[in-house]
Design goal:
It contains 16 helices and no strands. By secondary structure, the chain is mainly α. The chain has a single domain, classed as Growth Hormone, Chain: A (Up-down Bundle), CATH 1.20.1250.20. InterPro entries: MFS (IPR011701), MFS_dom (IPR020846), MFS_trans_sf (IPR036259).
Length: 391
């Protein structure tokens, strides 16, 4: 089971690694979208993704078999990216990102929700650490795929990376088709109740404010993730292959730090670790504004990896504890955070993108990451002790 779940997360990471660095390039340079039009498209996609993620998260705690929802998300991702690959056009891009891909994007949250529910029911003492391990596997996919995707985009067409992503989604779908034949892999409402989890009524105030801090840091991540490939090509003078190298190097360095943060979470509180990661990431953003060559960007990936390894793994377990006994709905908060971050970052990108370059995006991202860390710190240092002294 662990091998299959890890393979699923590897394929899921592959789909992101193949497309995220090139989504803006494909839309703006390949299809002729303006920065404003692309930002609007991302906003619509984020709103649809919000509905899809919350809806599937709500259902996952009430269905008899979570595997069906994960399979559905995988097939939708394959359909959406396959459409862009087979028929690249403005219309197919809009249909894919605004209608189909948001449901495929829920595969990330649904996969971790299924995995957490499975380990809670079968091996509860390992549940939280195994989520960190699976997140590390997700990062490992970014080591292999970005150089391949960069070579494909530079040698053939940038739209061919969507074929790689569609194939990865099909790989995830095949894994859950296999799991549908395994009785012990069935996880639903019966198994959740059997694990002894009682449902809570809502989200504590400290957690709610903490989620706001996570959203702000995630906006910084998404904003820099959108702007970095464009800055490498437009401001620094790099190539598509350099974009792939930048993404792959960052992912390679993340792997050991992801595991290190997982061990740290066994000793220190997760929100404290996320605060430190947010501040480190802000430092990386400010240093990125001073980069003048691809080499400068590559050297900075060590700092980036330390921060991103924590920011992409620790919030998973943090959010999965938001609503006790509702691991599916709690995990959907991860998708909600991603969607809200995508929506807000798209708005900032649309307002700030100009002919002067993309460097101002990184100043904004640094400020947002710092602000998010401060909000998260205050949530648990001030509000948390006041409303829940017993904890």
């Amino acid at each position: 089971m662990t091998t299959l779940l890890a393979a699923n997360l590897f394929f899921n990471g592959t789909s992101y690694a193949a497309t995220l660095p090139y989504a803006g390039i494909a839309a703006i340079d390949g299809l002729g979208f303006s920065s404003g039009d692309y930002a609007l498209l991302l906003s619509i996609s984020a709103l649809v993704g919000l509905v899809a993620s919350v809806g599937l998260g709500f259902l996952s705690d009430r269905v008899g078999d979570r595997r069906v929802l994960v399979l559905f998300a995988a097939l939708m991702g394959a359909l959406g990216f396959g459409l862009i690959y087979v028929a690249p056009s403005s219309l197919s891009y809009i249909i894919a990102y605004c209608v189909i891909v948001p449901f495929g994007g829920a595969l990330f949250g649904q996969s971790f929700g299924y995995a957490r529910a499975y380990y809670n029911a079968r091996q509860p003492e390992r549940a939280e650490f195994m989520i960190t391990v699976l997140r590390m596997v997700f990062s490992a996919s970014w080591v292999l795929m970005p150089p391949i995707a960069g070579w494909v985009a530079a040698t053939y067409k940038v739209f061919d990376v969507y074929g790689l992503a569609a194939a990865a989604y099909l790989g995830s779908a095949l894994i859950f088709l296999i799991l549908l034949r395994e009785p012990m892999a069935r996880i639903g409402t019966a198994e959740t109740k059997a694990s002894g989890e009682a449902a809570a009524d809502g989200i504590a105030p400290a957690m709610l404010m903490g989620i706001v801090g996570i959203v702000l840091i995630s906006v910084a991540l998404r904003l820099s993730g959108t702007a970095a490939p464009l800055a490498i090509i437009g401001d620094i003078g790099g190539t598509l292959a350099d974009v792939g190298l930048y993404s792959g190097l960052a992912a390679l360095l993340e792997i050991p730090f992801t595991l290190a943060w997982g061990f740290a979470a066994l000793r220190w509180r997760k929100h404290t670790l996320i605060v430190w990661c947010g501040l480190i990431y802000a430092l990386y953003m400010f240093l990125f504004t001073q980069a003048h060559s691809v080499s400068d960007v590559l050297w900075l990936q060590l700092i980036n990896a330390i921060a991103v390894a924590g920011l992409m793994s620790l919030p998973i377990s943090y959010l999965q504890e938001a609503i006790h006994g509702r691991v599916g709905l709690s995990t959907s908060l991860l998708d909600v955070v991603f969607v809200l971050a995508g929506l807000l970052s798209a708005g900032i990108f649309g307002l700030m993108a100009s002919s002067t370059g993309y460097v101002p995006m990184f100043w904004i991202a640094g400020v947002l990451s710092t602000l998010g860390a401060v909000v998260l710190f205050l949530a648990h240092r001030v509000i948390g002790p006041r409303v829940a002294p017993a904890n």
